[in-house]
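Appendix B. Raw example, untouched.
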Amino acid sequence: MSRSFPIWNEVHKDTHDNSKRWGARERCEVEVKVGTGRKNSYDFVTYRTTHRELEDGRREFCFYVDGALVKRARLAKGGAFFFHNYPFIKPVVFGGFNDEG
């Protein structure tokens, strides 16, 4: 059965399970394509989440959009998150879906 979706997500991750809810150990990347279906679609955005353990035992999580670091969080060995948002990323508020964006 053929399906036609205007938004298509290609997921690349470091584990090989195929469930709708899934995890990754070190890296997950999603390529979002837009168009009229899987075979007639164009690159729109790529986002990636990474994880690594630092030398001092903390864990670092990074979120990238099209290769630009957007957010980083560090988890203390037994503690809470410290978030650092980068100031060059500003939220965009849309009034709705129309030609004006």
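End of appendix B.
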